[in-house]
Write a sequence for this structure.
């Protein structure tokens, strides 16, 4: 019984992954894969990326950022794009000015990383509010979310 449930679960996960394995189109609402010369990651300004950045901050412990959440991100710039470098995975490094729920503005640094989503499908974001990273979870001055 247990083995049958495990087999069904594995089969359903593989089926879901196979249904996503279509070539990527430059559309922020699709999963991104590395086929040919197609886009490997969405842009820094994509709505889905901004939403992921805000979600990353919102998921932090409530006392970590003092209960602040990101309302919007302005002045977004791509700092660097690395692909097939030391790591074969593509990474896009971005920064912007985050409007926070307490009315303040803070620098936000974020990295969009290829194949970092659930079970390696699609992309994921690592975001850091530079002056508010009090435990240096992202290294000094958000170094893990910035290019080296």
């Amino acid at each position: 019984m247990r083995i049958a449930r495990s087999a069904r679960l594995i089969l359903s996960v593989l089926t879901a992954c196979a249904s996503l394995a279509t070539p990527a189109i430059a559309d922020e609402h699709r999963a991104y894969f590395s086929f040919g010369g197609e886009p490997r990651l969405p842009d820094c300004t994509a709505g889905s990326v901004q939403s992921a950045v805000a979600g990353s901050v919102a998921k932090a412990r409530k006392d970590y950022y003092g209960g602040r959440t990101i309302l919007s991100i302005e002045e977004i710039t791509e700092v660097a794009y690395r692909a097939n470098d030391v790591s074969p995975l593509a990474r896009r490094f971005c920064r912007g000015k985050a409007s926070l729920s307490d009315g303040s503005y803070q620098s936000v640094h974020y990295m969009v990383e290829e194949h970092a989503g659930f079970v390696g499908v699609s992309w994921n974001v690592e975001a850091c509010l530079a002056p508010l990273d009090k435990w240096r979870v992202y290294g000094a001055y958000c170094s893990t979310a910035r290019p080296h």
Observations:
- The beta strands are 70-82, 91-100, 105-114, 123-129.
- Confidence is low (pLDDT under 50) at residues 13-27.
